[in-house]
Specification:
The protein has 312 residues and is mostly beta strands. It has one helix and 23 strands.
Amino acid sequence: MDELDRVITADDDRSHTPEGGDGWHETWSLAFFDEGSGLYGLATGSIHPLRQTGSASVALFSNQRPVYILDAPKVALADCDPASGRIGPVAFTCNQPMSSWTIAVDSPQLSGQLSWTSLHDAYDWAWGPDTSSRHFEQPGHVVGRLTAGGTAFQVSGYGQRERAWGSADPAKIRSAWSSRVLFADDHLEHASVINVAGQDHLFGYVIRGGEAHLIERLDINTAYAYTGGPPLSTDLRAWDGERLLSDHQIRVLSVIPRFDVTDGLETQQFSTFSKWIGVGSSAAGFLDHLWTGPREVQDHIAISGNNGRWVR
C-alpha cells in the first residue's frame, strides 16, 4: 500500500515531507460555530513549499454580519513554518494529534486564539489515488476568544477541523458540494459530493445517539440566488441502507465568495454559513460550493456508495 492509499494515522496530524510536483501543499482548516451567541467563523491556511509561498485567512461573523475578514493570499515562505502550522499571522498548532489543537491569530485588526478538542474519530476521504493528495476531517468542541477592532468575542461551541496534503492537480476537482453541521456532542453530520475528473465521489457520515454511520446514499436539491450565484436553500436527505439518517432543509445565513485564476484556470467558490432545520434538530453549520473551469450547476444530486473510512 503506497503513500496515497495507506491508512491515515495520528502522525498525519503533523507536517509531511513534500513529494511530487510544485503543486504540493500542506493545508489546515477550522469552521467553528457558537449557536448560543450567534458567532461563527472560518480559519484556513496552506503552505506551498516548492512555490515558496503560503496563504491564510480568518473570517468572523456575528448574527449573520461580518465582523472582520483577514485575508493573507500571498505569504512569503520565510514567514511560514510547516512544523508549527504557522502561515504569517495565523498558526495551527497540534497539541496532541487527533485530539487537541490551538488556532492563533496575530494581526493588528484581528487577534486571539481558539482551542479545539475532538469529539469523535477522524474521517478519511480515502481519495489519494484519484487526486494525488490526502484529506481527513474531525468534529470537536471549540472555545476561545477573538478580538476585532477593539471588541472581544468569546467563542464556546463546535468546530469541524480539516487537514490535507499532497500534490493535487486543481484541474481534477471539477466541483465540490460539502457540508458540516454539529447539533450536539452526540449528533454530528458531514456530507460531501466531489467531482474528480468527471466522476462524482460521495463522502460523509452521521453520528447520533452513540451510533456512527457512513452515508451510503445522499439526495440533495438546491435553489440558487441567481444563475451562477450562491445557494439560498438546500433540501438534504441521507441514508445508510434503508435507514434514513438525515432529513434537513439548509438555509443560507452568510456567504464568503471567492474567485481565483491560477495558471489560466478559473475557480469560483461560495463558502456559506447556513442553518440546518429538521424535525427535532436545528443548528448552524458550514456549506461549501466550488467549481473549477466552466460551471455546470446541478440543482439535484443523487449519489450512492461512500468513498471514505474512519481513522481508528
